[in-house]
């Protein structure tokens, strides 16, 4: 059975892919939009909602990565998080370009309507107001996109700092492991030397004991059997 943490990571990845596709579809709708302004505003509202949901899921995945016990799994998930953030930045850039494309399309449509004639003064006034609203709305959208991109860049920098810190921790652990390996090798040599000395001491004791017993037997023999 998969661990709850693994299930959560898998769900986050699925949701991120889903929201990414939905954002791309909405951006394409903005490219194809030729007005009116209310339609563009509605599409941009939907895009903002999807970006918020996407950012929330990426943050959840990043938090899950930081909670991983194994360093290798942690680094792998953090790399996935970084890729998702880069993809979101790319989508935000495409969103801004799509808004510009839509503005041009709306401007061209309004110019074409002006050329059709009839009630020129009223149409000119309406066009100016519409252009002013469109410019204001697009300017606001572009400012919002810029703020979002700035936040993503800051989050990417924080993620990179986390990766650098983790790499430094791994290097320090490797150095400690090398130091421990040297200590273990030295201990093995000392134990081997101690075992050899112990064997020599046993041999000397055995020889001394044999000499002692031979001496005792000799003395006993001389006392009990002096004629031998």
From TrEMBL:
Chief location: endoplasmic reticulum
GO cellular component, one term: SNARE complex
Chain coiled-coil ranges: 37-87
Domain Sec20 C-terminal: 134-224
A matching Pfam family: Sec20
Record carries keyword Transmembrane helix: yes
Keywords from the UniProt entry: Coiled coil, Endoplasmic reticulum, ER-Golgi transport, Membrane, Transmembrane, Transmembrane helix, Transport
MF-aspect GO terms: SNAP receptor activity
Spans traversing the lipid bilayer: 203-220
Native source organism of the sequence: Carlito syrichta
Subcellular location: Endoplasmic reticulum membrane
Gene Ontology biological process terms, A to Z: retrograde vesicle-mediated transport, Golgi to endoplasmic reticulum
Family listed: Belongs to the SEC20 family.
Membrane topology: Single-pass type IV membrane protein
Protein name: Vesicle transport protein SEC20 isoform X1
Source organism superkingdom: Eukaryota
């Amino acid at each position: 059975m998969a661990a709850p943490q693994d299930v959560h990571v898998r769900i986050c990845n699925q949701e991120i892919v889903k929201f990414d596709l939905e954002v791309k579809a909405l951006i394409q709708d903005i490219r194809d939009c030729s007005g009116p302004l209310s339609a563009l505003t509605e599409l941009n509202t939907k895009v903002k909602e999807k970006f918020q949901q996407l950012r929330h899921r990426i943050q959840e995945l990043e938090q899950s990565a930081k909670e991983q016990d194994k360093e290798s799994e942690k680094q792998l998930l953090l790399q996935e998080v970084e890729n998702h953030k880069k993809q979101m930045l790319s989508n935000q850039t495409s969103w801004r370009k799509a808004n510009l494309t839509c503005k041009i399309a709306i401007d061209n449509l309004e110019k074409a309507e002006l050329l059709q004639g009839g009630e020129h003064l009223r149409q000119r006034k309406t066009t100016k107001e519409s252009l002013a609203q469109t410019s204001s709305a697009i300017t606001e959208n572009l400012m919002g996109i810029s703020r979002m991109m700035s936040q993503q860049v800051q989050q990417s920098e924080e993620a990179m700092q986390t990766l650098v810190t983790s790499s430094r921790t791994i290097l320090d652990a490797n150095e400690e492991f090398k130091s421990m390996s040297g200590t273990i090798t030295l201990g093995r040599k000392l134990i081997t030397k101690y075992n050899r000395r112990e064997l020599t001491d046993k041999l000397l004791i055995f020889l001394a004991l044999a000499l002692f017993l031979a001496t005792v037997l000799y003395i006993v023999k001389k006392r009990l059997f002096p004629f031998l």
